[in-house]
Amino acid sequence: MKKTAIVLSTTLGLALATSSVVSANPTTTPNGPWVQDEQNLSFSSFMTNEELYSTLQKLEKASHGKMVLDKAGESNDGNAMYVAKYGDNSPDKKKLLVYTQIHGNEVLGTEAAMEIMQKLNSGGKEINDILDEVSIWIMPRINPDGTMNQYEGEQYPARYNHQTWDPEALGLPSDTAAPWYYNADGSERGQNNNERIVYGIPGYDLNRDFSPNYDFDLEEFAAENPEELASILNNPKTNNPSSTGFEVSPEAEALTGVVADFDPDVIIDVHHRGFNRLSEDDNRSVSIEVLGQFTTKPFTDPFTGQNYSIDDDVLTLSKQVTVAAYDALQIGKSSFGAIQQYPQVNYPGSGLGAFQLNGAATMLIEVKGQTQTLGQKQNGMLKQTVKAPIYDILAKLADGSIHDVDASRYEDIPPYYGGIDPSDPKGTGF
Ligand SMILES: [Zn+2]
């Protein structure tokens, strides 16, 4: 099993006692968890890819046939990507897909996913009844390369994958612009070093690398239309956050393949973000931020000219799922219930953006705290903020009551108010 100790990095000569990790900050309740802005944590204690794989294999074995573990693909560095399938893709079933850690430094969703599988394995009648109605597929750790990223000889999970932009390999001129979400110098936000850590391995933000056209094949398009591809990449009007991703990465391709095969009704993507207070009047520390809508305008694919927009029914179900998640965590006036709506985006090239345009209802869960500031404080509580909504949505999909949720209450989820961490006044994008 994985170790749980927190090891403080001494990279910058800081010799800090573990107790200082929970230093008090009086501006929200509860205080933290966070660390002082000049500190860094070491991540050698987090689950490695090998540990993840062996845990998944044990879960498959312990499931006695309930779960089938399939390899969905391989990362750019050749690390396996698995999908754990509870139930098949039959159109007679309701279908939920959960994926985690598309940003390698956002680790807790993967740990929560393991615990969900454990519960599905060991569940009694109630869970078995749910699984009779609902198939749930879980894809943990979409970014295994970023997870195992190293900095100064220690594991330092990064947001990005490991992959170099190589236009000539696609038959394009060497000066062809990279996709806008390319991280050329291999750098990561840090709490020190002028808020930047340079680990030096280029890569992509995988959660911007999706195309609403599931059939899009970059290599194929490049071989047939190199000049058109170069001109789309070189044009800021077609290579920007509101345009498509380019499916450069094998990771985005693998996830898209699973979505196309499973054709889920609902997809949940788990991330982390910064720290926020709930509102001016309510100083609770935000537990999760949620979002159910990922594009605000119809999208025209620059490669095919095809138009995409979100179906009304899909948007309604997305909002119902998001409201159900919100309700699942209202436990008294605890910090669990301090939930905000993630600021609205228009990202057809994000995973959920592309999937929602293809007819899946979608929800983003953003757990508080980036790995670099979080360490492993309050892990149990934070994992609960992922698990409780997913269990509730599973149950509501099974008995159909998800369709009775009042979608209009989506608008009542408190809006984003502001950051709390002085080094991260605006929080962090998903
Ligand atoms: Zn993220």
TrEMBL record:
UniProt cofactor(s): Zn(2+)
Signal peptide range: 1-24
Annotated InterPro entries: CARBOXYPEPT_ZN_1 (IPR057246), Peptidase_M14 (IPR000834)
Gene Ontology CC, one term: extracellular space
GO biological process: proteolysis
Keywords attached to this entry: Hydrolase, Metal-binding, Metalloprotease, Protease, Signal, Zinc
Top-level lineage group: Bacteria
One GO MF term: metallocarboxypeptidase activity
Pfam family, one: Peptidase_M14
Domain Peptidase M14: from-to ranges: 45-430
Gene3D superfamilies: Zn peptidases (3.40.630.10)
Recorded family membership: Belongs to the peptidase M14 family.
Identification of the protein by name: Peptidase M14 domain-containing protein
Species for this entry: Exobacillus caeni
